[in-house]
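Because discrete structure vocabularies remain unfamiliar, we first show an illustrative case, written as a sequence plus integers encoding its fold.
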Amino acid sequence: MTKSRSDTTIIVGLALVVLILAGSVFIPSTMGAAIAASSKSNNNGLQTNIHSQAQDHANNNNGKNHRAGNLHPFPSAHNGGPSLTVNALTANNETLHMWVRIQSHGLPVQQGPTPLTIKGVAGAIYQITLFNDDRGRRGSTIFNHWLNEDVNSTVIDRSNPRTITLTQDSVLTGVFNRGDRVSLQDLGVMQLVSHDLYNVERATDPFFPSSHPKNDDDERLNLSTLFNFGEDQIAVGGEPRNSENIALHTVAVGLGQFYLDLVNNQHVSPEEAKQLTQDKYMLMVKIAYKNVFNEDYPVNDTIPNPHDAQPAVGNKSPSTDSLTADLALRTVHSFLPGQIIVNGKLTPILDPSLRGKTLSHHDMMQLSKPLDGTFDPAFLHIEIFLPPPHPAPNAFVINLLERDSSFAKEFDTRFLPPVDNTPVSFEQMLAELKDGHYDKTDNLVLEPIRDDARAAHSPLDAPDG
């Protein structure tokens, strides 16, 4: 028996429903545009459009303009016109099936899961929107940028929707991050922990290279990063590197202001105010540690830290200060987002206008980039300028991923006994995070962090949290 076009349309629609239920196709529950957090009204309109289309089909069996995903024939369906294909990949180069909508001049053309191809009209303008699978803190897939075919280019196109004029066959690929997310508050706290435990002088430092590379800190959570740089620096977050990004800076400044309020307004002695500030800090650390690493902060004990003593290797002298845990803590850089919302406006996190400023409590609760063992491209090309009187050269370009990777080689980081004594690289640590989260099986990353965390409590009694 010959099937009518309407019968075929129904079969296609049912097949799509089966794929959706099987989890093979992601359809956004909110239909919210990636990046734009304020698109709820547009989302509801799109859902209504889809539902209206189904109702129209039920009332009009000719089905000419109601094939799955093809909402309007204009300006596509010109068989001789150039094609437009939209793909989606993770930052680890895995194929994704994300929902995409193609419009032209405000009219819907086609939508569906990637990869999606249309035949367009030469010279027509198209808007392409890729949608997130936003599940909050656990397992979200979030749009990051459009793939740039020029590997030497540092331009990052995050526009979504993206507008193009179709003049030839074109392929657009959206890159997504997939994994767990944390608040900027938790991320800032863990970065402050890294600065509190480690202040490493490096021979490869582009600003102040050291002839004797070492860790110049006491590896204790005592807020030395805040208190040891002069009274006048406490109000602005302590040591200058605590202003590297606005989330970290906000946490450091908040703790400094807490201390100063105790001393100046509540007339608490500096010694007691320092202890109260450290107590507050330790509570923040324990909360952030659990949210980031998905386990409780390690219990403080008297077990010797195996990472405190590294044996001689080859022609290298024995070290009493292995920095494997410092390297492991640097994996939280995979959470760093390239853009954040500041007072309602999407802003590059490294925007020079943010330097020295702090975020509101509301903005500190926004979520990070999903963890996936990759770095946001913004951190692969960081332009830094040191104003006079710093002598030339005073302009630098930093690749944070390269800096973290070279750290392992410079300090010969190793996975120490009781497991073994083999070198461990930053790439090996990041590979453990490609599944999108920290878990108890990530031994390369978490074992050294646990060891240093156990030994890192302030000499003052830290409260349980």
About this structure: The chain has two domains: 5-179, 184-454. Residues 1-24, 29-78, 302-321, 458-465 have pLDDT under 50 and may be disordered. Residues 270-293 form the longest helix (24 residues).
